[in-house]
Design goal:
The protein is built from eight helices and six strands. The chain is of the alpha+beta class. The strands form two sheets. Strands 1-3-2 form a three-stranded antiparallel sheet.
Length: 166
């Protein structure tokens, strides 16, 4: 997995990204991180993780302590829910860890459990809590955007038909 540059932390959800982009839009597209923390009412560490995800997706850039909405971020903020999902589908395929997960899953013929995905891609440790967080991450991001399918009965993920390794 590409470890360089910003990436989306496992506990960040699409709703968190969308919410932060909306707040930034309301703040005229630019705010210092302390103002963002105050506006969203979350711990600074969580806000920093959301900013990292937004940056990895190209929606925000951080410069000298200010979070700045990119043109892509402004476009994202103006879309309805279904438009945001379509846009996230395009953005996730080029950002980590999504890119590595999509590539890995596209190469697998059989459905596999989240624990195997975690282990082979070093997404998380072996604890049940980490596996649960990774499962939620995959469901929130890659099932929602149409890259993966999930069988709840067996607890297995697989790439959707037509998903190619890039």
């Amino acid at each position: 997995m590409d470890q360089q540059g910003p990436r989306c932390p496992l506990r960040v959800t699409p709703a968190m990204v969308s919410g932060l982009v909306e707040v930034l839009e309301l703040l005229n597209g630019r705010a210092d991180v302390a103002t963002l923390v105050s506006e969203v009412g979350m711990e600074s560490g969580v806000v920093l993780e959301i900013l990292e995800a937004c940056e990895a997706l190209g929606l925000v850039r951080v410069d000298e302590g200010d979070a700045i909405l990119t043109e892509l971020g402004r476009s994202f903020s103006r879309r309805r829910h279904s438009g945001k999902i379509k846009m996230l589908r395009e953005l996730t395929k080029n950002a980590e860890p999504f890119k590595s997960i999509i590539r890995y899953m596209a190469e697998k013929k059989d459905p596999i459990p989240v624990e195997q995905i975690c282990r082979e891609l070093n997404l998380c440790d072996d604890s049940p809590e980490s596996a649960a967080m990774a499962k939620s991450f995959l469901l929130d991001w890659l099932v929602t955007t149409g890259y993966l399918e999930y069988n709840g009965e067996g607890g297995l993920f697989k790439a959707r038909r037509g998903v190619k390794a890039s």
